[in-house]
Amino acid sequence: MSLMPQFHSGGLSAVNRLLDNYENMFSNPRDIQTYAPYFDIRETEKAYYLDGDLPGVQQKDLEIEFEDEHCLNVKAHSERESTIEKGSWRASERLVGDLRRTFNFPTAIDQDHTHAHLKNGVLSLEVPKSTTTHSKKKVDILD
């Protein structure tokens, strides 16, 4: 995944929604799927700022890890209660299951000073730019 801007309104988004709806007609609503959450990405002279919606994800189910000095992985899992007392599913549209998003930065990133916060289903990351290289490292998520 590059840091190129993505706009989710307009011409192709309607086509993408139609294709998603068509695909969902043939899948079991209880199937766990992997999806890539949407993020807003800002860049300043000194850092990258990422804000992504992770509804239903709890901190214990979230992992943020550096692949190398240019690559950051966000992985998580969300579930919904599987017990239904009465009735049957008419629609199942909420995203549940595994999520994964990889960010490839054009400049080296400072792994030691990267901060993550998860609040009200929104993950916020501050990823400072760096000129030094590091080995693979995990990021702690603060309350």
From TrEMBL:
<comment type="similarity">
    <text>Belongs to the small heat shock protein (HSP20) family.</text>
</comment>
<dbReference type="InterPro" id="IPR002068">
    <property type="entry name" value="A-crystallin/Hsp20_dom"/>
</dbReference>
<keyword id="KW-0346">Stress response</keyword>
<dbReference type="InterPro" id="IPR031107">
    <property type="entry name" value="Small_HSP"/>
</dbReference>
<feature type="domain" description="SHSP">
    <location>
        <begin position="29"/>
        <end position="143"/>
    </location>
</feature>
<dbReference type="InterPro" id="IPR008978">
    <property type="entry name" value="HSP20-like_chaperone"/>
</dbReference>
<protein>
    <recommendedName>
        <fullName>SHSP domain-containing protein</fullName>
    </recommendedName>
</protein>
<dbReference type="Pfam" id="PF00011">
    <property type="entry name" value="HSP20"/>
</dbReference>
